[in-house]
Design a protein that fits this description.
By secondary structure, this protein is of the alpha/beta class. The protein is about 35% helix and about 20% strand.
């Protein structure tokens, strides 16, 4: 049984998808045992509490530099015996020390079909705005392993989502979450926990 930590920065909709999937028995080889938020007061921490999962805050601005932040984050993960780290809308960039400590054990969900609309600064509504501005007919989501390159790690799963006439970035974001992110992320976590993907 792998201990899973989910790192969040906001409302925690992807966290909820993971918790719901676990409750349905879809990840028999893993359990979410820790939720780490990048700031206090985010709704994701309430979701964790409702599910009986410990929530902690590790805030970048509480540390002198990124190395100190990484050390604190790593200490939090290690002290909770975390085996797998899932980035679910976590807006702080992980440094080399964290990535090295969890090789092929950090997953991220990105709201576009990598290599499209990814890399530094492409988060939140921006990938959706970019897809609409480009006139794309499809977009989607990608789950990938995290390495030193932003959105550059090996891809595990992708799912395409149709872009419809009249879509706004907000409408498209919601459709990508519902049709792709909330399905792909729990599936990828279960695949890694079961050893299907190494």
């Amino acid at each position: 049984m792998l201990n899973v930590a989910v790192l969040v920065s906001g409302g925690g909709t992807n966290l909820q998808a993971l918790l719901d999937s676990e409750a349905r028995g879809e990840n028999p080889n893993g359990k979410i045992t820790l939720v780490v938020a990048s700031k206090p007061g985010v709704y994701a921490l309430e979701r964790a509490a409702k599910a009986g999962v410990e929530g902690v805050v590790v805030r970048r601005k509480d540390y002198e530099n990124s190395e100190a932040f990484d050390a604190a984050l790593l200490e939090t993960l290690k002290s909770h015996n975390i085996d797998l780290v899932v980035l679910a809308g976590f807006l702080s960039v992980l440094g080399p020390s964290v990535i090295e400590a969890y090789p092929r054990r950090i997953l991220n969900v990105h709201p576009a079909l990598i290599p499209a609309f990814c890399g530094p600064g492409m988060y939140g509504l921006r990938p959706h705005q970019a897809a609409l501005a480009r006139g794309c007919k499809v977009t989607g989501a990608t789950v990938h392993f995290v390495n030193e390159e932003c959105d550059g790690g090996p891809i595990l799963l992708q799912k395409a989502v149709e872009i419809l006439p009249g879509d706004t970035p907000e409408v498209l974001q919601k459709r990508v979450m519902e049709q792709a992110e909330w399905k792909l992320l729990p599936k990828a976590v279960a695949m890694v926990c079961s050893g299907e993907i190494e």
